[in-house]
């Protein structure tokens, strides 16, 4: 087939899928299945692709060549996260990872702690937003505090307890640092099939009583 026709076909297929992805509702089972089938297609992280790819991913803004973390909020947001470390890059599932960060909290953070999470996975048709299924994917959470196991006063597990980092609401004003620390990432057997191989974009906005506390976005790759 003529190469130009191949690209045209891919282009119009991408438009169709993206249109369905933007309009899909949980009750539209056929559309939801189509999106999830696309997300389940095995994907190779962009950094492992060769220069002979049919599609120029760089010119289409599709490349994820390393872990990247950015602030999508403003300088006035009262929760600031900096110096995020995530190794290896890409993250291997299952396996050992090294996680580290510094955080500054300028106001007490308490219930209700709302979060809006958007996760996109790169497919051969472009970035596709992952639907929210069983509280995994692009989901809205009305109160993260209610989902944290245990209660205020309980001892936090290491390494959080080692470095005095709280793990229950309310989160008090203060500076918190987790130096790069080894974390055991368990087998992906309990995770959805789309969360195994490929490039991802994640954006999380956290707010309380209508006030934004923080917004951060990340690009990362996962391999198994």
UniProtKB/TrEMBL annotation:
Looking at the record, the residues that make up the MD-2-related lipid-recognition domain are: 69-220
Signal peptide positions (record): 1-23
Swiss-Prot/TrEMBL keywords: Signal
Q: Name one GO molecular function term.
A: enzyme activator activity
User: Which Gene Ontology cellular-component terms appear in the entry?
Assistant: cytoplasmic side of plasma membrane
Q: Does the keyword Signal apply?
A: yes
Residues spanning the membrane: none
User: What Pfam families does the record tag this protein with?
Assistant: E1_DerP2_DerF2
By its UniProt entry, which InterPro entries does this protein fall under?
GM2-AP (IPR028996), GM2-AP_sf (IPR036846), ML_dom (IPR003172)
Its GO biological process annotations read: ganglioside catabolic process
- Name the source's superkingdom: Eukaryota
UniProt protein name: GM2A protein
Q: Which organism is it from?
A: Branchiostoma lanceolatum (Common lancelet)
Q: Which gene encodes it?
A: GM2A
